[in-house]
Amino acid sequence: MARIGVFICHCGENIGRTVDCPGVAAAAAKMPGVVLSVDYKYMCSDPGQGMIRKAIEEKKLTGVVVGACSPRMHERTFRAAAAEAGLNPYLLEMANLREHCSWVHSDKAAATQKAIDLVRVMVAKARRDRPLRPIRVPVEPTAMVVGGGIAGIQAALDIAGGGKKVILVERGPSIGGHMARLSETFPTLDCSQCILTPRMVEAASHPNITLMTYSEVDSVEGFVGNFTVTIRRKARYVDPDKCTGCGDCFNKCPLKKIPNEFDAGLGTRRAIYVPFPQAVPNKPVIDAAHCTMLLKGKCGLCAKVCPRGAIDYQDKDRLEKVKVGAVVLATGFQLWDHSAYGEYGGGRLQDVIDGFAFERLASASGPTGGRIQRPSDAKVPKTVVFLQCCGSRDDKAGKKYCSKICCMYTAKHAMLYRHKVHEGRAVVFYMDVRAAGKGYEEFVRRAIEADGAEYVRGRVSRITRRADGTLLVRGADTLAGRPVTIEADLVVLADAVVPRSGSEKLAQLFGVGYDGDGFYSEAHPKLRPVETAAAGVFLAGACQAPKDIPDSVAQASASAAKVLGLFAKPELEREPIIARVNRTSCVHCRACIHACPYGAAKDFDVLDRAGKVVRTTADVNEGLCQGCGTCASVCRSHSVDLDGFTDEQIHAELNALL
Amino acid sequence: MKTEPSAVQAPAGFEPRITAFVCNWCTYAGADLAGTSRLQYAPNLRIIKLPCTGRIDPLFVLKAFEDGADAVLVSGCHPGDCHYTSGNYHARRRWTMFRKLLALTGIGDDRLFFSWVSAAEGQKFADLVNDVTAKVRAAGPFGAANPGRRAW
Fold first, then answer.
1. Residue B145 contacts by C-beta under 8 Å, 6 or more apart in sequence?
2. How many CB atoms lie within 10 A of CB A438?
3. What is the DSSP letter of A520?
4. Would residue A494 be called left, alpha or beta, if left means φ above 0 and alpha means ψ between -120 and 50 degrees?
5. Degrees (nearest 5) of the Cα angle A558, A562, A563?
């Protein structure tokens, strides 16, 4: 006989305000199988959990239903408490009385009735729960980090420093990411390259790190502790083992006018190139979209000049399978395309540039050697207008969120410009200055007070180009309450931060959720900020939300700590929500085998004592099964069932709603 | 919310009872988000949580009607976003077939609802519940002869 205990939580007033908790407890006491039903202010607190533990022991409960918050919040907490008292944790169920009831309804009578129903459903389920044992699976103690920007590099170095192997996968020809493109960093103005490049070299030379640049994740199989990831090693057309990085090839390549993505299109590169001189690995790749040898079979100069014979025009993409136990996604961000703003020139005005272009102009290693000049005529601009919130905080044409980093980098840009062009004017249009960070507010004040940046509160309505090349910036000064027109030589737009192109596809490969803007979703916004809903997949950096360098590095180290924690045990316990086949009733129609997305359902030969195959049925591999239950619902003879969500339980739940 | 067609006469005080089969990863989390965002919606829905929409046996839907639901809502991850890679595709395929067969059972397809709701779509979930509730309220009770039914 089932002996169910029901515990109704008030969650302070969060549930109690709209649900009559003592009433729910009283109603639950009359439900079949319930031997104890109580309510308490804070069930998750120590005394609350103590009540559950005590009741399990004293009342010899065979099942527990906690009516409280979402199971996504505290199911683990309560199951751990039940386990402490000697009850199998999978005999505890939660009724979601907060997120699904008290917070979304205001009519107390209706909410209370719904709460009683939700508890009744879970009591019906708990009565049919069976003790389950966590599944133990071995862990492959190698991590994969996707994305070789500062977040990915930091995560890889921290994991490698902890003594575990790391595979660092980067889409581009070099690691370094956006940080390698920056001139100087706020709020200290130290040179970005100087702090980054030693870390890049360290990552490349670390014995525990395998670098896979010019590579992308092609497909993913498996689960936490045991992922098999297929990586597409894109054709470089240069054998990195033979190449010494001497540079003869890209100095001779006749195609000199290809815009360099690294320099935001301001500089040029060849068809065989390294994106920047400090690249890691410092070995070129051939850009198949431009190389005339690859396109038309004409040229071949680089192969002729290469002293090592490293050029291979026949090179093909290769697929490489790796086994990893955990994954850190650090795919980062890119800037929103401001061509959607027609009033700012729709991307057609040459002297209206984005933040990265300004970084490259200000960078000592940039295409101008650090000289700030207009892209159109190479003149030094006398007036530069910086527009903040370009595409951010605009839910009509842009993005509704705040991109977080723009206030700070715009202050930095204004400062760098004034340091380089002393007589120049730096005018910043802003909506609000958000400088929340250590030393950030002081930095912005310095830009205004010491370096003379002119801050104008207001939006710019239009940018037009006069025949002489001057840009007319028309806007409003909302503090003075009057329109302003500024004749500018250069306009820098602080474009919104958006996730990297292709990040949604990657999320789908790993089963990671993402929000409406494409940023990856963490498992819990406050308490599990680096984990995802997919076990064993962690997040670092701006792929989760706009972040500056310190925040990205902090999150990368946090995800590395999570990975090392996962690898600290040789075996991993996994939720035992898996499918089981009743082999006596299975007719071997193979519907489940076709339906299983993990290849966990497979043929099973039933043998007699002599080892002869008597008949074949389906069976489920515990290690591979993830518990989606698709097999159970396609089974024609109802021979497959899902632990924790059995047919019997679901029918009982529906019946409880009668 | 749609306005109720005047031609349908629902009994006074009729409160629709809607059973929802949702997946744990997207819609259940989306409903949680509606809660944390304090979005108010009609209290007529009861959620049965499943790991994945792929777990939904058509029998569950029939059983829900048999047990007195006026309508059934099925909701899971958007195509391509399934936590289990492809469970929602199986659900969708089965759904297409099942809708056609449902007419045979005498259950109109105006009583069966389907929507993709992701974990980030709390507002969509709240709107969906309100919309479905309004439609079912207009359609009136299912199987009014069922003596065991009571208002939710």
1. none
2. 9
3. B
4. beta
5. 115
Residue for token pair 């320099």: A263
The tens digit of pLDDT for each residue in A310-362 reads: 999 999 999 999 999 999 999 999 999 999 999 999 899 999 999 999 999 99
The SS3 of residue A247 is coil
d(CA B69, CA B139): 13
Nearest to A349 by CA among A330, A375, A329, A315: A375
- Please write the tens of the pLDDT for every residue from B89-100: 999 998 888 888
CB neighbour burial string for A278-307, b if at least 16 within 10 angstroms, e if fewer:
bbbbbbbbbbbebbebbeeeebebbbeebe
Q: How far apart are CA A380 and CA A289, in angstroms?
A: 34
For the ranges A48-52, A220-224, A555-559, the lowest mean pLDDT is seen at: A220-224
| pLDDT class of A451 with cuts at 50, 70, 90 | very high
Nearest by CB to residue B51, choosing from A72, A114, A629, is: A629
Per-residue pLDDT for B10 more than 60? Answer: no
Model confidence, pTM: 0.80
Beta bridge partners of A602: A619
Backbone angles phi, psi at A27, to 5 degrees: -65, -40
Q: Which of B41, B57, B59 to mutate to test the interface with A (most CBs of A within 10 A)?
A: B57
Amino acid letter, A258:
I
Q: Which residues contact B96 (CB under 8 A, 6 or more apart)?
A: none
Is residue B5 over pLDDT 50? no
Distance of alpha carbon A118 from alpha carbon A115, whole angstroms: 5
Q: Are B55 and B76 in contact (CB under 8 A)?
A: no
> Which one of B32, B120, B126 has the shortest CB-CB distance to A516?
B120
Instruction: Label residue B152 by pLDDT band (50, 70, 90).
Output: low
Classify A585 as helix, strand or coil: coil
Identify the residue whose tokens are 């919040």.
A73
Task: Round to whole Å and give the CA distance between A67 and A74.
Answer: 11
Q: Which residues of B touch A657 (CB under 8 A)?
A: 17, 19, 46, 64, 67-69
CB–CB contact A104 B34 (8 Å) = yes
Best CA proximity match to A600, nearest among A325, A326, A91, A226: A226
**Tokens for A250?**
């890209």
- H/E stretch holding A425 reads strand A425-430
Amino acid letter, A473: V
Q: What is the DSSP secondary structure assignment for residue A100, as one 8-state letter?
A: I
What confidence tens digit (pLDDT) does each residue in A363-389 have? 999 999 999 999 999 999 999 999 999
Residue A102 in 3-state DSSP?
A: helix
Alpha-carbon span A470 to A381, nearest angstrom: 10
CA distances from A517 to A207, A496, A503, A521, A616 (A): 38, 11, 11, 11, 49
Find the helix packing angle between A46-59 and A71-84, rounded to 10°: 50
CB contact under 8 A, B90 and A595: yes
